[in-house]
Amino acid sequence: MRYFNYLSEEEEKLLFHELPVSFDNASDKEMLSFAVGAALYTPATRQTIADDILAGKHEGLVSMIIDLEDAIGDHQVKLAEECLLLQLNRLSAWVRHGTLQRHHLPLLFIRIRSPEQMSTVLALIGDNVELLTGFVFPKFTVDNADEFLQLLIAYNRNKSPSAPALYGMPILETTAVIYRESRLETLIGIKKKLDPHKELILNIRIGATDFSSLFGIRRSSDMTIYDLSVIRDCIADIINIFGRIEDGYVISGPVWEYFKNDRVLKPQLRETPFEDALGRKGRRLRMQVINRFMDGLIREIALDKENGLIGKTIIHPTHITLVQALLVVTHEEYMDASSIMANNTGFLGVMKSQYENKMNEIKPHMNWAQRIISRSKVYGVLHENQNFTSLLIRLGQEKAYLQN
């Protein structure tokens, strides 16, 4: 699996200064933590999961979360487990027979409802577990942490040495996390549960939809999750507890719920990047991007990145390319990060950036630089004259947008 592997060699040369590297579910944990990226949720009751993966239906799909929890009805649990087994059996058979190359599989996760269901699912799917990258732990709390973690630890302790590790991705989305009077104690308690086993924790995920529900609020397509004050404050505390560089946790951005847009407010997406790429036609493309992808989603991803969050839960395939495009490292970021790391020799403290628009301080910016280099390995680095719009235009998208 490799990001943007659908590009032609000519397009890769045009767009990328450094190409993304390949990975699979056996790659090292740091790379996989960054690689989860745009994680597409799909109900476990969906009958075409395996067929869609084989056919490459969703261009750019790199990670998928098969949902046994909120995406299915409470009376569909047994059906969903049976469907999950069927889909994994089909994928496994295709891999064995060479119909599907193992390295073409997206990173697959299962969101279960409870530790009890995780135990059931592990027994149900048997050796097919080796197709998975991990499990998603919903409504993760101090009270259920040990049960989830012990199942994860037991699997990894007893698995075949040749089998890939199985990771956990807890979702913080309960009242104890969002309510101010219990938040810090709860977050610190959860972190104490996770710290001894952090090598098995791929992402910390934020359940902003559940948080919003507790207050009867919901962001509109014109707003970002950071415009909801009570949710923003909670995200800030989650970052404060889990985002410290010495702990090594990767935090993922919350879900964006919209896939069509009825705009109320004036869009904030600048015209310049589109005009630079396409001239006058770029204005029309910009409006197509705004209508299809939503200005709000672009702003929210930008704010996720500024706050140190990597990746995003998505519920619609049209979000895949956009989220991924915005995670690619720019040439300017890469040159700054590379310069900072190369000059960390003890003989220099500060220097002017190659772009001559900022000062780079080696010690204060070192942690940032290391994260940029880690992200660049997974998502690649754009050429100096390229930006995220270039990846939206490629492979006939320009024509498709302009004809709509």
Q: Layout of helices and strands, plus pairs?
A:
Layout: H1 9-15, E1 16-18, H2 29-35, E2 38-43, H3 49-55, E3 63-67, H4 77-97, E4 107-111, H5 115-125, E5 134-137, H6 142-158, E6 167-172, H7 175-178, H8 180-194, E7 204-206, H9 208-213, H10 229-242, E8 251-256, H11 272-278, H12 281-293, H13 295-306, E9 312-314, H14 320-327, H15 331-342, E10 350-352, E11 359-361, H16 362-379, E12 381-382, H17 388-393, H18 397-403
Parallel strand pairs: 2-3, 2-9, 3-4, 4-5, 5-6, 6-7, 7-8, 8-9
Antiparallel strand pairs: 1-12, 10-11
Helix pairs in contact: 2-16, 3-4, 6-8, 8-10, 11-12, 12-13, 13-14, 15-16
Give a summary of the structure in a few sentences.
This protein has 404 residues and is of the alpha/beta class. It is built from 18 helices and 12 strands. Strand 4, helix 5 and strand 5 form a beta-alpha-beta unit.
Task: State the end-to-end distance.
Answer: 31 Å
What is the string of helix and strand elements? HEHEHEHEHEHEHHEHHEHHHEHHEEHEHH
Number of domains: 2
Tell me the name of the CATH class of the largest domain: Alpha Beta
Are there runs of 5+ residues with pLDDT below 50, and where? 395-404
How would you characterize the largest beta sheet?
A: 8 strands, parallel, barrel
- DSSP E strands, number: 12
Describe the strand arrangement of the main beta sheet, using strand numbers. 2-3-4-5-6-7-8-9
